[in-house]
Amino acid sequence: MNWFGAAYYPEHWPRERWKEDARMMAYLGINVVRIGEFSWSVVEKSPGDIDFSLLDEAIEVIYSEGIRVIMGTPTCTPPPWLVKRYPEILQVDRDGLTINAGSRRHYCFNSQVYREETIRIVKAYVEHYGRDPRVIAWQADNEYGCHNSTVCYCENCAIAFREWLKKRYGTLDRLNQRWGTVFWSQVYRDWDEIDPPRRSLSSPNPSLMLDYRRFSSDSVLEYHILQRDIIKKGSRAPLTHNFMVNFTEIDYKKMAEKVDFVSWDNYVMTDYDPDLQALNHDLMRSLKKSSFLVMEQQPGRVNWRVVNEAYPPEQMAFWIKQSMAHGAFGSLVFRFRQLPFGAEQFHSGLLNYDGSTTERAKAFAETVKELRNWKIDRLKKEAAIYIDYENFWIGETDNLNGNFNLLQDGILPLYKTIRSFGYNVDFLFPGDSPSGYSFVCIPSAFKLDPEFLEALQEFEGKIFITAMTSQKDENNNVRLQDNDSFKRLTGIRIIDAAGIKNPVRISFGKDEYIGGFVIEALELTDGCEEMAVYLEGPFKGKPAIVKKGRCYYLSTVGDIELFKELFELAGIKRMANGSARVLRTESNMVLLNPFPYNIRILIDGVVHNLREYEVKVVLPQRI
Amino acid sequence: MNWFGAAYYPEHWPRERWKEDARMMAYLGINVVRIGEFSWSVVEKSPGDIDFSLLDEAIEVIYSEGIRVIMGTPTCTPPPWLVKRYPEILQVDRDGLTINAGSRRHYCFNSQVYREETIRIVKAYVEHYGRDPRVIAWQADNEYGCHNSTVCYCENCAIAFREWLKKRYGTLDRLNQRWGTVFWSQVYRDWDEIDPPRRSLSSPNPSLMLDYRRFSSDSVLEYHILQRDIIKKGSRAPLTHNFMVNFTEIDYKKMAEKVDFVSWDNYVMTDYDPDLQALNHDLMRSLKKSSFLVMEQQPGRVNWRVVNEAYPPEQMAFWIKQSMAHGAFGSLVFRFRQLPFGAEQFHSGLLNYDGSTTERAKAFAETVKELRNWKIDRLKKEAAIYIDYENFWIGETDNLNGNFNLLQDGILPLYKTIRSFGYNVDFLFPGDSPSGYSFVCIPSAFKLDPEFLEALQEFEGKIFITAMTSQKDENNNVRLQDNDSFKRLTGIRIIDAAGIKNPVRISFGKDEYIGGFVIEALELTDGCEEMAVYLEGPFKGKPAIVKKGRCYYLSTVGDIELFKELFELAGIKRMANGSARVLRTESNMVLLNPFPYNIRILIDGVVHNLREYEVKVVLPQRI
Amino acid sequence: MNWFGAAYYPEHWPRERWKEDARMMAYLGINVVRIGEFSWSVVEKSPGDIDFSLLDEAIEVIYSEGIRVIMGTPTCTPPPWLVKRYPEILQVDRDGLTINAGSRRHYCFNSQVYREETIRIVKAYVEHYGRDPRVIAWQADNEYGCHNSTVCYCENCAIAFREWLKKRYGTLDRLNQRWGTVFWSQVYRDWDEIDPPRRSLSSPNPSLMLDYRRFSSDSVLEYHILQRDIIKKGSRAPLTHNFMVNFTEIDYKKMAEKVDFVSWDNYVMTDYDPDLQALNHDLMRSLKKSSFLVMEQQPGRVNWRVVNEAYPPEQMAFWIKQSMAHGAFGSLVFRFRQLPFGAEQFHSGLLNYDGSTTERAKAFAETVKELRNWKIDRLKKEAAIYIDYENFWIGETDNLNGNFNLLQDGILPLYKTIRSFGYNVDFLFPGDSPSGYSFVCIPSAFKLDPEFLEALQEFEGKIFITAMTSQKDENNNVRLQDNDSFKRLTGIRIIDAAGIKNPVRISFGKDEYIGGFVIEALELTDGCEEMAVYLEGPFKGKPAIVKKGRCYYLSTVGDIELFKELFELAGIKRMANGSARVLRTESNMVLLNPFPYNIRILIDGVVHNLREYEVKVVLPQRI
Fold first, then answer.
1. What pTM value is reported for the model?
2. Which of C12, C46, C346 sits opposite A182 (nearest CB)?
3. CB-count burial class (<10 Å; 0-12, 13-18, 19+) for B611
4. Using CB atoms and an 8 Å cut-off, which of residues 389-428 of chain A contact chain C?
5. Based on CB atoms within 10 Å of each CB, which residue in B517, B545, C344, C412 is the most buried?
């Protein structure tokens, strides 16, 4: 049975209301609620004075309606007394300014004091609820890294960073050599001379910058493992953490290894793009190659944008169905009831401020009824996109074009193109194998995993690679002679490269297309043939797209139009035609209409019509 | 006799020049000058070494021409020696950075040391000039809050804030409950845990934010009262303080209670809008429901904008006449003479840098001659707009649309519409009564005073209310069940609301109009009827304007076109037609042309022609 | 023989490679390389442990190919151990935040500790290389002021500033009087009360601001002289420092006096404008009225812009030729070889990352061959533009239009106009004489040197002056009665002035033109005649251009179209027609085509055709 529910905060409402809330939950089809993740000051009112009676009572009421709970550890919000007692837990920014309490996430992951406080409070939660059968899962902390809290520059971090570097490099000589500190006279003679990349007049060393991002991500991971170890020791319930949309500051691939299942919070960050939400679903599924949970589903209006727009209940229903179609085993709406006080007072919920039901609640109940026992087979392996979280960090250091955003400009256009051709998309990470996919795309992977590169040499499907791929080594330095394997695969050597302010025209097939952000001047080796040339710009007349065997290389950043033509010419068969989205499993297909109007889609000669926001499962005609 | 004059700084000019200046003042028609408000380092060259001889002599010279003075206390500019001795008086910003001396207003209102220094120096001024008949008024300090100096985050403020909170809430339990600190685990167990809303990762508690703004405004008030008490004890001359244009950081309604008359500084802040200046005049008059003074009248170019534009002398003449028409009993130009040194060296004055007269001086003299004995009756009560200063602060915390500015987007369009219909405007505040007005407008009053709301139930005129009104309670929380009185008045219940990025079309009357910023989904109760509906957007088809009895509710933010149509359909009679402005008293009318070209206006069937910048008093034909 | 070369960093590459590098240098025609300027941590690995063996060996290898070196002192990049030992050397910004090490230039010019360290390390370099004949020149430090490092606000600077002020003013009374500290009660009674213009609520005193900029520039100069004295004492090789493009934070005129020859770094900062590069060349030549060196020539793509664009090798070749035509005696490309690590890893070089040659290297070799013995006579004195570095600083304090940039908006349009008429341009500075030039332009010289003004009275050529000239005195105060000399020259008195947001139309000659940024209202004295009037704006109908004898005054900021018409009407003869650039010496002319297409130019009735990027020396037909 799939999980449907909401975030519920019994501490926000009078005890007398709980029974009514639980009854409404049951009525709406809820079978699980998340509780507890901001409850520290409720459970431990004064230092050491731990009392779970409020949560106990609430869980009892909730469970009386057959609803189980996901228990959150409350470490995201250390209470005021804790911060006043230990102000050293606060983060410090790049400028050297302390970031104060007052909202949430106000702690440094490398604070030894905070780690001890974390152990103490998490142990208390696990001792109390570790064996409670009503607790069906644990969520450690809440949205690690939210509000740009991943990277801290405090002295605790400086000390921890040096230890991290010692482990990574062993000797200073090795570090100096790998980082190229001889440039600008930055050679270290003592580990204590190494500082975080705090504010300086010009660019810090790019190797240090990448390592600091790795260290920061690893610090979150290390902090998480503290909690994981306590929870796993004291409870048999599975452990998760709620990941975030479009979030690239933490290496989620590594983090996913430290949870039993991935969950994530499905919010629309800017202008709504259904494919961007779908991309995030596919990414989350790919992290553990497994089914996942939507821990927080946006119900409608949020409170944290400049303009907090409305979304109709039907769209929320679509979002829930879309999650399931992409591999979720459940969805919890954030939040059960709108809260009139606190910093999220304009965030919508299933219930109104006054506790009355809303159109959203009705739409939720209908959706749950429909999906309760929805079982969709595992999605077929079709197309794959390569992602390495470290490349997001490399992309934020020195580069050819500071306006290029790897996720938005590099990955999303390729994802959209593949989906428009009717293919499922999996994401592959360093260490993964491309085998079994029809084709693999590698969008601007500045650094390319050597093992993955080797696997590509043997891969039998088509390969599409875009500019800047394999440009950097492990230390964020430009690759030199050791790039032969990449040259063997692609047939190219890059002799020059540059950022471009405006797109350049490319002659390709029967038409003209454009490339953007960067361009490269290629030298082709034997067996590599030119498919398209630049019609303007500094590399006018030079190849824009080349092909060696099954491997296609684009020496610029493409848009959807260009990729469509490239796929066509490369013989990628269109599996669907139309504006609906399609996902395929071994036994059937799911068709999705993310739009508020009727659309159609042509698959294998059959036309399927979809009403606004409709999601339907069909048996394919011919596969 | 009305007051006409200028700001004069004898300390800036050689003693030998004073006589000449005084003669020119008299020649121009000046009967009062403001002096002294930046004179601390002149009067007290070294700590304790107080010497008024320069001011004494200057006043003697000025008075020899029959001119009196408004004496400013010099606390706006503590001298260098004071700051070096007591650096703890400096403000600290949200990031924790000290704001240094070097310009002006460099002190924290809650600094105990600075309060003592203030008492010392103000006492000295009052002891010296308290009984001087040549001093006809006092100005305490200068432009409280200017340069964003109202809100400080230093430790002095933290301590004072906690005391303020203790007085307001009595117990921490009460505060925790009112603020909803249970959200995000912010429950306080000790008053000392409460800090100013210093920089944090995400939004602080909105109740704390509102209270910090109240506390900051109250701190200014408390500081002002220190000075007031000394001045009132030592002098019979009336006390004022110069308020600022478009300024909403201090609760001027409360501040007005602590001065004998309101004065304000009439500057054009951005692109010139004559109605915006008029709005400020009406607001200043409404604060004490009494005549006011323009303490600083911009003469032409200022020095503090990015592009410091010129304005012709005729426009300055208009500004002075406009002030008087709106209820001023005088106007002082800032400044008498352009100063070649110091931070305002590009600010224009009546005299040129070299002491010669200017076209501005001539225009001033002519205007003064015309207005010297101008007595305009009290303006008639016609239309009113509700303002609560706290709503400006609420509007800057969490909200549906962060681009909405209450003054500019909420109040100004309504004001302009009313004025274009030919009505006088008064502003009403919490505690005021609407009685006696033809109609009352309540533009987006997030929080609505319960007493005022009750008074509206009995009010016999028409009422126009726009979106978001009465949405919040006293603690900046979203209102729940206790909003029945508002529901009774308007006939509506708000079931959903959202920000909108782009305006939405509304079908209203025979035409289409637009609403902006936010929209609300209304549920209508008995007796409430729909007047207009949304043609697009998330609440398409739902009511945009409704009417219950004499009360009209607009569930979005309107523009002038929409309000004009609403007034027409509501039967608000046009009292004037044309682009001139009109103000009515019991006995006559003032017609104003704020433009550099001739215009006309039709009133009661009579056409009045006005030359460029003309202001004239006429007897109405039929009233 | 001219100098051609590159920046070379032997410490970046394996010793085994040096021989090959030197051979390639020789092959490309290089006869000089700059080394050492970032070598501190290579030479002094630990405090006191000084070892020049790496540089010795590298110089030996380089010199074996007949190549000499320019030795840079390494003070631009204090090594990590030094910063950790003496953190007090770091700069502090206006907000009070420390600017950390991590990139370069991380030291305060007024740090006594750093000055001592500087003396120590520079002495070591000079003792070692002072008599080495292979060292043909010294470069002190590297790009003083780069990355906005000229102005620091630390306590060291505060103390040094007070000493600087004591020397300048002698007594506090004098300082108080000159600065006009009586404004806003800023009168100082003790030198220690004077602080740098750190962050305050509003504008600091403009006299203090100008003096702080002077002091900051002087501090750099004082620091430089420390190094100069050591180098000149220990070596007979000439000393230089590499100046920067468009850089106005340091008074380069004063700095030029402290070097034996000027060198500068020729980079394209924003969108390429060949005239802006030419202006910089002419400025550098004018500083010492002497030939100069391009110490760093951009080879193609740089790494420090948001979008790092490509430039073709032919354009680099043009840049080198353009330098020589404007008076350079050599050009060193930055850098010899692209570096795969460190903060400039995307900066291009003559060699590729892997040490292979590039098209840039080929173009360089061809250019060097062509120019090796190119001797162009001294450029003829034709037209001159007045510059005072202090005016750039005045332009950044209080002003009429904060959008006006003196270099870009005031000087460049005049420069471009003069060049389009076919004239050479020299820059003149305070103390220089206009004599010998056909005409002199004075674009918005807020402060005008009294001696230069006197010389202009006698000058026989034409004079073109634009708005705001002579508006300010030595203390950045608005000038009063003492401006008679300027009035005598121009025939005007400025009675009002203002910034303008949008350009205003001017009736001039047979057509309409526009003026921008500011306008002035002029009063004309005898002998001054009106040439053009404003068609709109606050001073409509008033004179826009006036003429007294040979002196033309424009009361606004002109663009190229306006200046062309003004020159025509003033009888400035066109010496060339067409889009090529021309430079004249006593014996010949250099024609330059900065464009990637063929152009032509008509000179003295003869048409000259130039291929893309061509630079050629021709004998003039008739002169």
1. 0.97
2. C12
3. exposed
4. 398-403
5. B545
